[in-house]
Design goal:
two-stranded antiparallel ribbon; cobalt; 7-stranded parallel sheet; binds nicotinamide-adenine-dinucleotide; binds zinc ion; globular; Rossmann fold; about 400 residues; 3-dehydroquinate synthase activity; about 15% strand; Dehydroquinate synthase-like, alpha domain; EC 4.2.3.4; about 45% helix
Length: about 400
């Protein structure tokens, strides 16, 4: 035998903090985290990358960060902040990636340093990717500022940017150093962005936690009306379910299964073909609706449970359908999403469907005719006032 066997594993561990007013001087959370990892003789730098919309809604943030880290014994703040456009454009246009990498170069940010991303899921995905590929990996701290990034994207291990219009075509799996979910940032979020972040909570409840789904139904109106207590609970429970899944299964997605991408095969394609005018969370809501009704049509999910899902999405204010989700032929561009979904991961096409609320199961092919039928049912459901007691029909 002429080979050398290599085996090792690396332990990853990080905390997601739930807080408010992260950069007020009274809040010592960030400082304490830096202190807890401080090593004598090493002065780490800290570079901030901020979502432009955050700088508009929180014009004093830069100053607060300067004050917070002034004379900090554990880090040396890079005074210039890197500002990148908020929203999907941050992942679509290469210049934003280059801006961050250039700042890493210019300010001598090394692997002992930190890059802190402050923003929505798009800016965090971009910042995480830039951090991961610079010097083969700079420590990333995420400060998530949208419902979606606090309950899903910000707490996980994935980052990435889009390439040739394809979602997350370039990206890596790298756990963050830490995550801060500061509720105060959410207060300036538009209603549309607010609501769209709730779809990931519905998604994870549907595949993992029936009790959480019941809770979401009971609090649907509070969540849509931005009730603080209900939203905080939702974000924390959703983040916990995502993190449990990542740790307990296949964090770097070596297998063919991507359960947390329930409803996403059509969603990613819809985002792309609408030039990202449909938000990720909105597209996910439509994708969830499609795969839920499809589950009913193949006989795995009861009509009552199917109607509960549709009603919850509607009550929250999430869309069920869109002109590009009006599927009438196998040539409709959404269907290319199935192939691209498979291509992204490789291996066998694996799509999650529902057996019941809280329990998913995987299939390896979908019937195009039934998908089209599901899309027509959802077009009708979108128009009708409420689904609860109405039968599903075309
Ligand atoms: N990495 C992952 O595991 C993962 C998981 C799910 C989604 N995602 C990605 O996340 C992205 C969507 O993230 P998102 O829903 O947070 O949207 P987003 O980052 O695109 O932000 C939506 C809009 O809100 C603005 N914004 C951000 N914070 C704000 C605040 N506090 N007040 C006012 N405006 C604010 C942004 O500038 C942007 O215009 C998509 O690219 C999606 O693919 C990644
Ligand atoms: Zn998603």
């Amino acid at each position: 035998m002429n080979y050398i066997q290599q085996d090792f594993s690396v332990q990853f561990s990080y905390k997601v903090f739930f807080t408010e007013f992260l950069f007020s001087l009274e809040n010592r959370l960030f400082n304490d985290l830096l202190e807890s990892v401080h090593e004598e003789g090493i002065m780490r730098k800290i570079l901030f990358v901020i979502d432009e919309n955050i700088t508009i809604h929180f014009p004093k943030l830069g100053e607060q960060i300067d004050t917070y880290f002034k004379d900090n014994p554990y880090v040396k703040l890079v005074p210039e902040k890197v500002i990148v456009a908020g929203g999907e454009i941050a992942k679509n246009e290469e210049r934003f990636l280059t801006t961050i990498i250039d700042a890493v170069n210019e300010h001598g940010i090394d692997r002992h340093s930190y890059i802190v991303g402050i923003g929505g899921g798009s800016v965090l995905d971009l910042t995480g990717y830039a951090a991961a590929i610079s010097h083969r990996g700079i420590k990333l701290i995420r400060v998530a500022t949208t419902v979606l990034s606090q309950d899903d994207s910000g707490v996980g291990v994935k980052n990435g940017v889009n390439y040739k219009g394809k979602k997350n075509f370039l990206g890596t799996f790298v756990p963050p150093f830490a995550v801060f979910n500061d509720y105060h940032f959410l207060t300036t979020l538009s209603d549309r962005d607010w609501v769209s972040g709730i779809s990931e909570a519905i998604k994870v409840a549907l595949i993992k936690d029936a009790a959480f789904f019941d809770w979401l139904e009971q609090h649907a109106e509070q969540l849509a009306n931005r009730d603080k207590e209900a939203t905080q609970y939702m974000i924390k429970r959703c983040a916990e379910l995502h993190m449990d899944h990542i740790a307990g299964g296949d964090p770097f997605e070596f297998g063919s299964s991507r359960p947390l991408d329930f409803g996403h095969w059509s969603a990613h394609k819809l985002e792309q073909i609408t030039d990202f005018k449909v938000l990720h969370g909105e597209a996910v809501a439509m994708g969830i609706a499609l795969d839920t009704v499809y589950s009913n049509l193949v006989g795995s999910l009861s009509e009552t449970e199917t109607n509960r899902v549709i009603t919850l999405l509607k009550t929250i204010g999430l869309p069920l359908s869109h002109e590009y989700m009006n599927l009438t032929s196998a040539d409709d561009p959404i269907f290319a999403g199935l192939r691209e979904f498979q291509e992204h991961l490789g291996g066998r096409l694996t799509i999650m469907l529902l057996k019941s609320i809280g329990t998913g199961y995987e299939v390896h092919e979908l019937d195009a005719q039934l998908i089209m039928k599901a899309s027509q049912i959802l077009r009708n459901a979108q128009e009708s006032p409420n689904q609860q007691k109405q039968p599903l029909s075309c």
